């Protein structure tokens, strides 16, 4: 499992847990149901956008490796901005069409949920990796001093 796959799996799990919590809130507090449904819609669309971008990044990496080996074509590849824009616009249009089911502000606020989550996870994993490297270096230094 490479780093992109690890991040993708973790983001999907956290978004699904967040969606389950929002569903639970919508059952417990029916007066806030539209807000909870808006948060679910926005976070799921955000997760789809992150998964799509990870897929496109993987394709670009593979194309770069093939090009470096001289086997690949020089086809221009993008990050799928049009797809991500279309899904976000669709997510914004749904609460405009059905305002009694979805809160517009909740959808707008949660459209960046998975992106922020990805940044936070990257920082956490980076700090964890740095601590493991420091601990390994400290153990190696102690081992050298004993010899």
Automatic annotation (TrEMBL):
Keywords: Cell membrane, Membrane, Transmembrane, Transmembrane helix. The keyword Protein biosynthesis does not apply. It is a multi-pass membrane protein. Pfam families: ATP-synt_I. The keyword Cell membrane applies. InterPro entries: ATP_synth_I (IPR005598). Its main location: membrane. It is found in: Cell membrane. The chain crosses the membrane at residues 7-29, 35-55, 76-94, 106-127. It comes from the Bacteria. This is ATP synthase subunit I. It comes from Paenibacillus physcomitrellae.
């Amino acid at each position: 499992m490479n780093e992109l796959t690890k991040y993708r799996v973790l983001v999907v799990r956290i978004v699904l847990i967040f969606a389950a919590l929002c569903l639970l809130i919508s059952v417990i507090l029916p007066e806030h149901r539209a807000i909870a449904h808006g948060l679910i819609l926005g976070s799921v669309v955000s997760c789809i956008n992150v998964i799509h971008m990870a897929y496109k990044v993987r394709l670009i990496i593979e194309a770069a490796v093939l090009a470096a080996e001289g086997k690949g074509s020089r086809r221009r590849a993008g990050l799928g901005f049009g797809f991500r824009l279309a899904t976000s616009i669709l997510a914004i249009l749904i609460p405009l069409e059905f305002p009694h089911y979805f809160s517009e502000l909740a959808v707008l606020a949660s459209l960046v949920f998975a992106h922020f989550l990805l940044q936070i996870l990257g920082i956490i994993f980076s700090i964890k990796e740095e601590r493991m490297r420091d601990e390994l270096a400290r153990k190696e230094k102690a081992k050298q001093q004993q010899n």
